[in-house]
Amino acid sequence: MKIAVCIKQVPTRDWQPRLNDQKTWIRDQDASYEMNEPDAYALEEALRLKEKHGGEVVVCSAGPSRVAQVIREALARGADRAIHVEDDALASADAFVVAEALAAAMKEEAFELVLTGLQSDDQGFAQTGVVLAERLGLPHATIVMDVQVGAPAAGQVRVKRELEGGWFQWVAMPLPAVLTIQSGINQLRYATLKGIMAAKKKEIRKAAAPDGLRARQRIVSLYVPEKGKKTEIIGGSPAEAAKTLVKKLREEARVIS
Amino acid sequence: MILVVAEQRGGRLNRASIEALAAAQQVAAGAADEIAVALPGADVKAAAAELAAFQIKEVVAVEHAALEPYTPDGYVIALEQAIRSLAPTLVVLPHTYQTRDFAPKLAARLDRAIATDVIAVKRAGGGLAFVRPMFQGKLTADVVLEGDAPHVATVQIGAYRADQAVKGTAPAAVRALEVSLDPAAIRERPEAPFQEAKQAVDLSQAERIVSVGRGIKGPEHLPLAEQLASALGAELAASRPICDAGWLPMERQVGSSGQTVAPKLYLALGISGAIQHLVGMKGSSTIVAINKDPDAPIFEVADYGIVGDLFEIVPALIDALKV
User: Fold this and answer.
1) For residue A214, is it within any domain?
2) N or C: which end of chain A has fewer CB within 10 A?
3) Of B113, B303, B319, Cβ closest to residue A231
4) Residue-by-residue DSSP string for A34-53
């Protein structure tokens, strides 16, 4: 089966936020980047489905040239080829712009299954996969924890969706479909040296973002959040801090004896 | 007019709907807008009556047999018609797992802008700015939506309080809105919701919880957290990545996809405090955070914080508790 995985490159988890001069976006040049974590799980799920059902995995990403780093990583983990919709403006684009840029590049490929992470660690819209489904005219399921291709019948997919508070639900739908994958659905593999070498020969098709993409959101101000609660930071050496904390928990908060 | 889309399951109203209603009332107060509440489902009369108690213009029951059980196709088809018919300027929904599933598709079908996970709404130059977390809560953004009305916003659970929703002096009108919905147009076939094997640990009953996050680095360090838990008389819990990695069972996960807890003491070890975790524990009476990153969002909800290496601090805490 022909599977697409949409991945995003996001700042690393330990990145310390720094704002641009206009305070409307981050200082891109200061950030270090990695593959968005839920997208990594989507990629792993696609690779497992390919191992089971055959076919190919095509990794798709929309972003500036630096995005090539996570595309190479995905190819090294086992994706067969890639589509890179390259445009500097995509670095801070909203979910509609990213989904429409991806949809334009993916449409003629006629993928049978499209996987992506349920949301990104940068802007965190949790919209792109769902909007992509709409633009491709496909059914979708979000927050997916298990994927059974060919169930309950050929040409269908049955997925386990996570609901709130420890509840789950199986949902079936016809293929092609778009699924947004939850972190933890599988155990990630890492690229082998052989994979890294093989990735160098794999095709990355570059596509331009289509004309007339229209932003639906504009960030007018970006800032460090104000604290809602007064936190008492306890200083000193580990031993001193530990002693002070225990005293406060006993005498001030009275939550331990 | 602001349209709130409320959520029910099996006829029972989701409390987050009332929070969304409170948000809409606060936005409306500045512009004397009116508020209507749409409630989709197969039989929503009881829940509609409950919503009618609030200070709103009307409750619009969007009833159709094919809206039970919930499907994204069914909801998008029905709500597209409801929104076109009611012509609101703003559509407000709670940011639940269900609205995450259909609201972006609804906005895309209407070709209208949507802001998700909104924590506040500001008036800005004649329009609205939606405040939402970005970069895992490290930053907050004021976002303006572009293009024609209605704009769509989903409101983060807990950002507005349900008890701030203003009740009306008399019940609001409830009316039904006819929608045409061909069951054959619904592509998804949901099965009944279920819970995994019965949960052996009920963290919601724990008086004290020690919870570990990525900062614990590896499963070989869990005994350290266990020792601290035992010294405090606490249950051990974890943030999602720890359970995803299989270091602790899923039943010990705190957060939006795990358990919601409110113990007397919640001690977070090496947990950065992603919003999905915070919503599951911020009701705790006393919160202690130990983290090496002074900018970690967990410190925003903590009463006491120690910035430092948990591998030095936890042994010192275990010692201090012996005295």
Assistant:
1) no
2) C
3) B303
4) EE-HHHHHHHHHHHHHHHHH
State which residues form the domain around A257. 228-257
- Point out which residues pair with B14 in neighbouring strands: none
Q: Which CATH superfamily is domain B203-322 in?
A: TPP-binding domain (3.40.50.1220)
Residues A45 and A78 reside in one and the same domain:
yes
Residue A216 forms part of a structural domain: no
pLDDT tens track for B234-252: 999 999 999 988 899 888 9
Each as own residue / partner, the long-range contacts of residues A236-242 (CB below 8 Å, 24 or more positions apart, any chain) are A238/B308, A238/B309, A238/B312, A238/B313, A238/B315, A238/B316, A239/B316, A239/B319, A239/B320, A241/B306, A241/B308, A241/B313, A241/B316, A242/B306, A242/B313, A242/B316, A242/B317, A242/B319, A242/B320
Residues A201 and A244 in one domain: no
A173 to B188: CB separation less than 8 angstroms, yes or no: yes
Is the pLDDT score of B30 beyond 60? Answer: no
| Residue B86 neighbours by CB distance under 10 Å | 17
Q: Which residue from A133, A170, A216 is facing B191, i.e. has the nearest CB?
A: A170
Question: Which parts of chain A have pLDDT scores under 70?
Answer: 227-228
Strand-pair category, B139-145 with B127-134: antiparallel
For residue B8, list chain A residues with Cβ-Cβ distance below 8 A.
none
Residue of chain B whose Cα is closest to the Cα of A188: B245
Q: Is residue A222 part of a domain?
A: no
Shared domain for A14 and A86, answered yes or no, is yes
Query: What pLDDT score was predicted for residue B32?
Result: 47
Would you call A213 an interface residue with chain B, using a CB distance cutoff of 8 Å? no
Residue A94 sits in a domain whose CATH number is: 3.40.50.620
Kindly tell me if the per-residue pLDDT of B33 is higher than 70: no
CATH of domain B2-185: 3.40.50.620
Residue A153 shares a structural domain with residue A257: no
pLDDT digits (tens, 9 = 90+) for B180-232: 999 999 999 999 999 876 556 778 888 999 999 999 999 999 999 999 999 99
Output the pTM of the full model.
0.87
Are residue A82 and residue A151 in the same domain, yes or no?
yes
A42-79 residue pLDDT tens: 999 999 999 999 999 999 999 999 999 999 999 999 99
Q: Do B303 and A134 touch (CB under 8 A)?
A: no
> What is the chain A residue with the closest CA to B274?
A121
Work out how many domains chain A is built from and give that number: 2
Domain extents in chain B: 2-185, 203-322
Q: Does A178 touch chain B (CB under 8 A)?
A: no
**Coil vs helix vs strand at B61:** strand
Record: contact A255-B264, CB cut-off 8 A: yes
| Token pair 């939006």 in the structure block, residue | B256
Chosen for mutation from B9, B257, B295, B299 (greatest number of chain A CBs closer than 10 Å) is B257
- If asked whether residues A181 and A248 sit together in one domain, one would say no
CA distance B265 to B209: 6
What digits encode the pLDDT tens for the residues A138-169? 999 999 999 999 999 999 999 999 987 778 99
Same domain, A154 and A257: no
